[in-house]
Amino acid sequence: xxxxxxxxxxxxxxxxxxxxxxxxxxxxxxxxxxxxxxxxxxxxxxxxxxxxxxxxxxxxxxxxxxxxxxxxxxxxxxxxxxxxxxxxxxxxxxxxxxxxxxxxxxxxxxxxxxxxxxxxxxxxxxxxxxxxxxxxxxxxxxxxxxxxxxxxxxxxxxxxxxxxxxxxxxxxxxxxxxxxxxxxxxxxxxxxxxxxxxxxxxxxxxxxxxxxxxxxxxxxxxxxxxxxxxxxxxxxxxxxxxxxxxxxxxxxxxxxxxxxxxxxxxxxxxxxxxxxxxxxxxxxxxxxxxxxxxxxxxxxxxxxxxxxxxxxxxxxxxxxxxxxxxxxxxxxxxxxxxxxxxxxxxxxxxxxxxxxxxxxxxxxxxxxxxxxxxxxxxxxxxxxxxxxxxxxxxxxxxxxxxxxxxxxxxxxxxxxxxxxxxxxxxxxxxxxxxxxxxxxxxxxxxxxxxxxxxxxxxxxxxxxxxxxxxxxxxxxxxxxxxxxxxxxxxxxxxxxxxxxxxxxxxxxxxxxxxxxxxxxxxxxxxxxxxxxxxxxxxxxxxxxxxxxxxxxxxxxxxxxxxxxxxxxxxxxxxxxxxxxxxxxxxxxxxxxxxxxxxxxxxxxxxxxxxxxxxxxxxxxxxxxxxxxxxxxxxxxxxxxxxxxxxxxxxxxxxxxxxxxxxxxxxxxxxxxxxxxxxxxxxxxxxxxxxxxxxxxxxxxxxxxxxxxxxxxxxxxxxxxxxxxxxxxxxxxxxxxxxxxxxxxxxxxxxxxxxxxxxxxxxxxxxxxxxxxxxxxxxxxxxxxxxxxx
Length: 789
What we know:
It contains 22 helices and 25 strands. Helices cover 52% and strands 16% of the residues. It has a 6-stranded mixed β-sheet with strand order 12-13-14-10-15-16, sandwiched between helices.
């Protein structure tokens, strides 16, 4: 990267963006990588970096932040361990932190669909055994766990026992008559040996070794002879403990050295991922999007300067390289021209660093080999020759490096010298840069450059809008129209006398006046066109919304019509199916009941059905015959079922129960059942009464037939809800035809869906008078007992 390119990066303030990026990183080296980012110049490399950022953004949204905290540099430690050195506890804990981060990051990326960074997660090689060995052995920088080794645990166990013995001996001295010789009744340590504080005048009364004397000389710290041996043993144990700890640390250091390459690779991958996720966090913070990339043109939609307050920054559309290769931006001072120029350059650099850009998601960024800028910070009209010379030196360097893969940004081109010469120089410089194939964006005040942009193919005017009424810039960039300086208008609003403004206007040559008038009319027409376009856009939006509502309404109508037709067809099919199944329903239910209730006397049921049908047929024939002879039924007519007859030989009345095929009558006379022939009896009842009795018998026969054919319970277990309700509906129809008063519906407990559907149906059924859950012995909540109307 050339010195001029690096200087342009500083001028465009990319380092300030990278500082914000570094603030999103977690690791020290990750922050360093962020600050060291520089634009990539290969289109494929830039695309890869953008895809990495996008993948990290998606993972942040779906899974949250990965755990990279606690990672510290371990390269030097591992190199020393590899050379046979023994690492301290802090270094080993840092290595364990890397291993832990590799394991948690691997879990974080596990199962992720293939994306631009999934291979980085898969490349991690966590070592849980080594991680747990270190973390379980080292409790802190100054503490090794007893469990680090069996030998260490044994040493410390002996140390605790020896310390207890020493304390017991010293405690006895404190508690004995010798306590009067002590300065204080305490046990203390001097030179790693347990001692007691003795008054100086009694130092000879407690025999032992003097280890220390207080600064005032009034206290001697004496190790009594009774604890010398125990203290010596304790010192030996301390030496053994230190040696064992050194051995443990050396062993763990050797284990780390054995896995040096894997740990270093994990560390490198974690730092890389930290940088990528920092880019993703910045993208979410600035509400950025991934740009499309091009090797020909730049097209930004709603671009905002990343270092401004994103809620207040004015978004502008910027383009270069597609319809034109040079953009000349004009407008008043403090109108936002320099910010616009920097926005274009800085967003280009951000995209080439793999950062998302603060613009809409349909923006396109061109990848340049270099972005060269000559942007001064001075905005005063009193520019000196040295300033002009400095700018010109930069421009010379830019023209020497520029080619067709260069973006050149000129701020106030040609300023700082005579306006006529400056304008001519500016036009010549732009023309030279275009001749090298570079794409150029420049800001200027010169009217000559406005004309140059209007009359030269491939060069486009743009202006930063200024509100003359409020004397404030709007910071909106308007493509295609040059801007006015608005010096007279601003001066007038600020209170400059009108006669001075008139004198100034008289000094302008006619050509300049006409040009400024043209610009004024153009600006008026532009504003009018923008208002009309905004109104047209509003009307178009309203029309689209109305059309959308109409489409939704029509769609709903179609859906409702389809539902109605489908429902009608379903009801028609159900009616047809029910009509077809009505004749087979009794038989089907009888067969089903026969399977479930084997103890039922089916012969009796069949006999009852046959007898009931016969009685019914005869009674209906009797009714038909009697209807024709209501007034005087002949007493000698053949008796039929239901007639009251008199036995001629006995004079006894009896009721005809049935008539056999051979004509023999089955009679009921009181409690006796007897048989008789037709000629042995005569009918004594009138036709009307016989007809009534026949109807009664018919009703009884029908009841017998129906009750014999209709089961009093139905089993819906194992059925889907819709199927169960359809079967229940047919069952209740049959039960009503059979004149059943109470039915039992077996639906089971299960999930409760069928039970709920059955009871909801019973609530709205015209057949059901009331219903209740089953009682104890009836099946409880697994059945519903319904009383029919």
